[in-house]
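cache lookup: miss for this entity combination. No prior model stored, computing from scratch. Input as submitted by user K.M.:
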Amino acid sequence: MNLFSNLIAKAGETLHWLYIYLGVARITDLLDNVVVVVAMFGGTSLFVMFLVWMERKVSAHMQSRIGPNRVGPLGLLQTLADAIKLTIKEDIKPVNRDKIPYFIAPIVAFVATFMGLVVIPFDNGVVVQDLNVGLLYIVAITSFTVIAILTAGWSSNNRFALLGGFRSAAQIVSYEVPLVLSLVPVIMTTGTLSLNSIVLFQKTLGMWFVVPQIIAFLIFITSATAEANRAPFDIPEAESELIGGFHTEYSGVKFAMFFLGEYIAIVVSSAVAVSVFLGGWLPFPYLSAWPVPGFVWFMLKLLLMIFLIMAFRWTFPRLRVDQLMDFGWKVLIPIAILNILITGALLLFFGKGA
Amino acid sequence: MITIFNYFAGILKGLWNLLVGLSVTIKYCFKPVNTVQYPEVRMPLPARSRSMIKLIYDGEKDQFNCVACMMCAKACPNSCIKLEGVRMPDGKRRMTTFKLDFSTCIFCGYCVEACGFDALTFVSEEYENTVYRRGGLLQDEQAMKWVRPPHLAPKPEEVAPAPAPAPAVPGVSS
């Protein structure tokens, strides 16, 4: 029935025969896990490369330009060229850096965001590990990036980097609160933290959570943009104020890791928004008769979501630090708490399923 | 109470403003872009743009239109036009050498205006005039030779007054 699941099953069978052919007994799941990790890593890297190209194209078209168009068809290989350039570049390090944190920070920034992909359901049941605390796990693991950014800013021994790190800490600590609070009404309604179950709940409910929880959705995408350090919330790396912010002193592969981490953070937060509010792998309304695998629907919604976040970046001016704090604490958090209260009251009156 | 109302009204107003901004950028995102890929795609320039001064060569008569009346050289504020002419056996004057130093030319167009024989003109398509050495800016009649394509032929009403000033230039210096 489900094309993508069948494909995954076929791939599993092929893998099984490959093991037999190679004379490797399938005694553990270790080899399977390695294959899954490699596939996730490769797929994500390719997707991020596509996203960088897409971002440059979107920004160009919003400014009535063409954007990258020289390397490969439509400039699609531009990101590959940039990636090669970054990897073969000399790794310039400040002499007075704090050596170990300086080395670890980009790795943490990358790994912390990448691990968020583990619980994202790409199709019905197609999850690397369907944790029953999925949402909590994602919120917990993605907030590790603030440690990475603060470490990077501290160990670079550069005043701009340090300022960027401090700003990032203040921002992410502030915006983590509305991010979690905006997810609470959905969790209250569904009674589960597993992303796949939340999507299934939307299937039985007959509508996506974006309809009853539009306020929570708006709060979520706002604070997700802030979490990913994206404009208009990009004060940790505000290039007109802080040069490069926390990654001022990073170059070459280490800078590429920060960059990759930033884009994966966008992917993860968009994927959470799609799963929780936009029905995940469910088809669009009135189109459920189409024989399209859920994976395609998921990717379509993901791309739409990412396009919206890109549009934010190229539309809104950057907030000042005090405006940022005002907005987070005086607007987002009270509204989110009010939303929880109203949802709770409605659930109490009408029972579950409202 | 009014404070609370203002609080929510402010949020809604802000949200509306953000949506207006987003609608503008997203609208532009799907509009065709204005960029022209220059070396591959060339924009047609307006017919009157002052790109390059050229000497008109008459392909049928196999000669330049210029009769070396020196009006252009006199009109030039920078004296960057040098030309010589001879009197042909049939009594008509012909230009022999024509030199225009584009390093001092300011493209004011006085020479084109002064020309009474439809011999000098601005050519709008010839706008790639950079040279690698300064000497390349000193152009002679061969470098400035330009045959007027048929679609740029002057309209009859523009041609008619053109010969009129010709007799009115008795001061054709020898």
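stored under new cache key. Chain B has two domains: 1-34, 52-159.
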